[in-house]
Amino acid sequence: MAQVTAENVIEVIDVWKSFKSVQAVRGVSMSVPRGKFIALVGPNGAGKTTLVEMIENIRRPDSGEIKILGKKWKGNEDELRRAIGLSLQQTYFIDKLTVYETLRLFASFFDLGKERVEEVITLTGLGEKRKSYVVNLSGGQRQRLALGIALINRPAVLLLDEPTTGLDPNARYEIWNILKSYRTTSEASMILTTHYMEEAETLCDYIILMDQGKILREGTLQQLLEDDTGEKIIEFTVEKGSIPPDINKPGLPFNITLDPDGQKAWVSLKDFDEQMPLFLNYIKSEGLSIKHLECRKKTLDDLFISLTGRRIDG
Amino acid sequence: MVRRIKPYQLWQLIVATAKELLREPGVIFWGIVFPVLMALGLGLAFTKKPLTIRKIAVIAPENTDSSSVKPLPFHEFLEKYGKKNPGQSVGDYNWRVDIKDDKLGNYEFLFYEMDRNSAVMLLKRGTVSIIIDDTTGETEYHFDPLNSDAHLSYLKISGLANADRGMAVTSYQSEGIVRPLEISGTRYIDFLIPGLITMGVMMSCMWGISYTIIEKRSKKLLRRMVATPMRKSHFLLALITVRVALNFIESLVLFLFAFLVFGVRIQGSLPALVVIFLAGNIAFAGIAVFVSSHTSNTEVGNGLINFVVMPMMVLSGIFFSYHNFPEWSLPVIQKLPLTMLTDSVRSIFNEGAGFSFIAMPALILVATGAIFFAAGLKIFKWY
Q1: Angle CA B8–B11–B17, to nearest 5
Q2: Residue B263's pLDDT is what?
Q3: Which long-range contacts (CB under 8 A, 24 or more apart) does B243-246 make?
Q4: Domains of chain B (ranges, CATH numbers)
Q5: What confidence category does residue A176 fall into, taking pLDDT thresholds of 50, 70 and 90?
Q6: B227 contacts A84? CB cut-off 8 A
Q7: Which of B88, B154, B210, B334 has the fewest C-beta atoms under 10 angstroms from its C-beta?
Q8: Which residues pair with A267 in a beta bridge?
Q9: B9, B13, B224, B239: best to mutate for the A interface, most A CBs within 10 A
Q10: How many Å apart are CA B64 and CA A93, to the nearest integer?
Q11: Which position has the higher pLDDT, A283 or A35?
């Protein structure tokens, strides 16, 4: 559970949820302090969306407790809806309404008028598209509109479910910039689900790694990656099929992880200076011919692989 | 829990729903132009009787070389009154008999002479509806008496053949004095227009409301909307309001067209018509909300809507009177919402009915709508 001393805007306590035979969320506890951006990172099926939907009160947990701004959903729905801004993983808005009209409609749900619509159009950079029908927007513009709708009520709590999935890098940066800019003008807290490491690293103060309905690890990026000081990753490519399946011999001080295509492999060296010569000798003794080799810093992806043996987006 | 209406929010929902609807060109065509075209087509088809052509097989005599054959009464009739076909190529008719009748419509009977086997084959195929056999010396008519069209042809031809009054066939007159119906409210178009209006209301509510809800649910827009403080009731209210307004315009255009082109008139109470029209809209809007309360699959939605709409289309007497259905089924048919609405609207249009006649159906329709709406809301899946 997050070690938090400031006031918690979102508190999730031992929440469980299953669908028929699938346990989607298994005893998750987490909290989001005021003003903090938190990333839920994990592969598809990790339970991120289900968890966020329970926080949004779109789904009810089987057991456990969720509080937002210190309040439970029951009996406080209208008040909490006013405090929350959200974007779902996939939403289609009304095709034949313009950007302006769509924002106007959603603004009316919060008793907000034209002024706020104009502010959001400026914030999301959709000025030139204000008269375009939603159906004619590009993927990135549509996502900016979805984000604009999420921000229309100046929410204290933002819940964004994969806001940049499927977007090209440019469109993704635009979304990030809007969020950064919103952050400078508000004290909002945010939970963002993503399977883009870079997104979590760029936007969020705190990262929660999820897999199979449970929290694997959590902490700041630094905490997560610097558990083992000086750890470096060697990534190398060999002739296809030349690495034997029993490459990890007992007694080796490192563990080699193979890509499913059998060409690429990683090895994490906790003490680089000492282990690198051992690694090279081992490769030589196994008779592997290396086509490409690079040394880089550990990423969240590496951490996930070392914890689960799988890649986050794989 | 009754909560205050939020006019600003409701108004924005109505505006958005109306814009969404009116920006679809298909809505204008299928909602307004199509019913008018249908009224025009059916109105013309059933007000002007076209020339009716019927084909009839006549059995050829087997022995033509002998002089001792029996007389062939029908052949004699054909030789006398029928026009022989000059062409006579294979597959052409042999004789033609025209019946001119301004009141009941013109008939043209085409007679084909052939052997028995070919005649039976053509009867089976439906190419001819009667086989006439006079080879025994008596004229025999072979046809299915349950086929009313064949029966009518038989009556006309046998009437002619038996008349033998020496007068020209072309001046044949129906017996008795026939007075085609011309009084307002008794023509087929007078029957049809109220039916088209009420069918339009049902279709528009069922497809317009149900399908919109199901589609918005499947696209997760409902889920997105109820994740705001939007009043759920306002969303449905806006959808229904816009739909009823569109139905009103559609019905008005259809009526004006029928009034101008066919002289269809509303003989009864106009306020009563407005009341029963609204009651019908409420009934079908309620049913539409109920039907769309759960599914997010548009295919399932299609099936559900058809399940509701189809039986009423067939049974409720939109195009033809439901009194032709078996006696035992009438009490059930008469209680269907579309039948109740259609009977009421028709009686206002054609029989001069007023509030006293439509009060009960209107109440039942409103209650039906309210019950289905409440039940639908109870099980409504917003996400």
Answers
A1: 140
A2: 86
A3: B243/B204, B243/B205, B243/B208, B243/B209, B243/B281, B243/B285, B244/B278, B244/B281, B244/B285, B245/B18, B246/B21, B246/B27, B246/B31, B246/B204, B246/B208
A4: 7-46+184-378 (no CATH), 52-171 (3.40.190)
A5: very high
A6: yes
A7: B88
A8: A234, A256
A9: B224
A10: 83
A11: A35
A16 has pLDDT over 90: yes
- The mean pLDDT value for A8-27 works out to 92
ipTM of the complex: 0.82
Burial of A76 (0-12, 13-18, 19+ CB in 10 A): middle
Nearest to A22 by CA among A53, A58, A47, A40: A47
Encode pLDDT of B151-167 as tens digits: 888 888 888 877 754 44
Q: Would you call B381 an interface residue with chain A, using a CB distance cutoff of 8 Å?
A: no
Instruction: Look up the CATH architecture of domain A8-221.
Output: 3-Layer(aba) Sandwich (3.40)
Residue A304 token pair = 């996930």
The Cα–Cα gap between B254 and B323 comes to 26
Whether pTM exceeds 0.80: no
CATH architecture of A232-297: 2-Layer Sandwich (3.30)
